[in-house]
């Protein structure tokens, strides 16, 4: 005996065959000159029960209701929904049969006239039906929808069509990216594209994805950062340069991490990390204004709280925050080790500043409501960063935190090739061959020997920025197709 799903699938095929029998293509052709539904709604007559102007619309069937010799359908496109009114007296036999062959989720083109019902509902009185695509897969239950969030992520098409707010949020991501580009362009930055395939994984401490190029017989990695190639371009005279690109790290997945993600990196010759603070504020503030309007408040909701992005953002040093939350000075190795032991952090055989970093993460980061620039990190944690002139143990670096989440990372860039090579080699010592920074990037060092101007550099995670500004629960809500584990067949 056929299951309900099989019977529904069979009924859809029968309706598809009916459309073919009527001499129509069930998968449609081009349908020119149709209006976005939002525009069609705006053309409604002032009075109810009076025909307005002729319109042509197209969309997906979302609802079907019967009332005697009338049929009421709802169709939707990216701009909204509108009601269709089918009257037996307005349509010939063929058109009525075409209408009857439509199902939920089908795509259809409509010619008709605008009409406002007695209840004031904007509608289109249908004069002609054009099938544009017969949907063979039935939609989710109209009352309960799809309850499994994993299914929605795996089938993003369903999520976009049937889950309220998803399409709007993902489209807002596009507006954020457009705004970021505009902010940088307005400040004279040039957008470039650099290689995704690298011979050496550099610019960050992360585990790369490995691949192999057959023709050259060489092992390659997918890039873990954009930094080193962009700096080479700055050496070559492109003094303000940026890239918005995909970056790949073979690591875990959670609310703020995805193995492939979008990163902005920007470099400004003759600037420093303070220049990058100003740029970071401008990027975020301008994105908020694009989303909410030029005069809207800069306070936005996120995770049930309000975040005030009115510049200037708060600025606190790493050392002060460590002392405040960990209860000891970060230079006091004995006190830091005791705090680490209290927190269950391993200390044996580890560099003291690495332990400091772990204690900072455990005690400070979650308390950072923000937006707050955390500045002046231990230099040993920052091998690509210029040291402070009056204190070489401190690196001119900041990270921007909002609600405990790192949103941006920036340096005054190190441009001394001898010191850079020394730091690279000390960083690589003892690392396993497969680790991300286990090979020296000699081409980058050669570029530094040619001469790179003093500069500020900035990295912003675009997925996290979109998550924050759209009040999403996690970054997979603002990535069109996040990484998920395949379902075993």
TrEMBL record:
CDD domains, sorted: LysRS_core, LysRS_N
Residues that, per the record, bind Mg(2+) 2: 406
EC number: 6.1.1.6
Primary location: cytoplasm
GO cellular component: cytosol
Location of the Aminoacyl-transfer RNA synthetases class-II family profile domain: 175-486
InterPro entries tied to this protein: Aa-tRNA-synt_II (IPR004364), aa-tRNA-synth_II (IPR006195), aa-tRNA-synth_II/BPL/LPL (IPR045864), Lys-tRNA-ligase_II (IPR002313), Lys-tRNA-ligase_II_N (IPR044136), Lys-tRNA-synth_II_C (IPR018149), NA-bd_OB-fold (IPR012340), NA-bd_OB_tRNA (IPR004365)
Gene Ontology biological process terms in this record: lysyl-tRNA aminoacylation
Ranges that cross the membrane: none
Entry similarity comment: Belongs to the class-II aminoacyl-tRNA synthetase family.
PANTHER family xrefs: LYSINE--TRNA LIGASE, CHLOROPLASTIC_MITOCHONDRIAL, LYSYL-TRNA SYNTHETASE
Protein name: Lysine--tRNA ligase
Name of the gene this protein is made from: lysS
